[in-house]
Write a structure and sequence with these properties.
- GO terms for molecular function: mRNA binding; structural constituent of ribosome.
- It comes from Weissella diestrammenae.
- Keywords: Ribonucleoprotein, Ribosomal protein.
- It holds the Pfam family S1.
- By secondary structure, the chain is α+β, with helices and mostly antiparallel strands.
- It has one helix and seven strands, in the order E-E-E-E-E-E-E-H.
- It has a single domain, classed as Beta Barrel (OB fold (Dihydrolipoamide Acetyltransferase, E2P)).
- The strands form two sheets. It has a five-stranded mixed barrel.
- A hairpin with a 2-residue loop joins strand 1 and strand 2.
- The chain is globular, with a radius of gyration of 16 Å.
- The N and C termini lie far apart (about 45 Å).
C-alpha cells in the first residue's frame, strides 16, 4: 500500500452511497469518505458535493492493515489559507490511529469569521430551493 496516516493524495470517485463516497487511490487501493468527512458544513446528500469520475484531493485518516480499509477525509484537506504545522515524524506505532484531529492546524476562529457570510448565504439558498 505505502500510504501513511495524514498523507494528502489524489483520488478518483468511483461510487456514491448514502453514507459516503468510494475513492480509488491507485490500481489496488480504494478508500471511503464518510458523509461527515465530505465538508465541514452539513450536507444532506453526498451527490451534492461529489460525482462519480471526479478527481479530488483527500487526506488519509486511518488505515486498517488487517482488512485493507482506508478511511479518507475531504474536509481535512488544507484550504483557504489554513496553515498545516509540521506533522512529519508523528506516527503511532503501538496501535491503530482511529481519528484525525486538527490540533496541528493553526487557524483559530479566524476562518469561521471569514467564511461566515458565505456559509449563511449557502444555507439560505438551500432553504429557498
Amino acid at each position: 500500500m505505502g500510504y501513511q496516516i495524514g498523507q494528502i493524495v489524489m483520488g478518483t470517485v468511483t461510487g456514491i452511497q448514502p453514507y459516503g463516497a468510494f475513492v480509488q487511490l491507485d490500481s489496488r487501493t480504494q478508500g471511503l469518505i464518510h458523509i461527515s468527512e465530505c465538508r465541514s458544513a452539513f450536507i444532506k446528500c453526498v451527490d451534492d458535493e461529489l460525482a462519480v469520475g471526479m478527481t479530488i484531493q483527500v487526506m488519509i485518516l486511518d488505515i486498517d492493515e488487517y482488512n485493507g480499509k482506508v478511511s479518507l477525509s475531504r474536509r481535512s484537506v488544507v484550504e483557504n489559507g489554513q496553515k498545516l504545522l509540521s506533522v512529519s515524524g508523528i506516527r503511532n506505532t503501538k496501535g491503530r490511529n482511529h481519528y484525525w484531529t486538527n490540533q496541528y492546524l493553526d487557524f483559530g476562529f479566524s476562518t469561521i469569521a471569514k467564511a461566515k457570510n458565505e456559509m449563511l448565504n449557502e444555507a439560505l439558498n438551500r432553504l429557498r430551493a
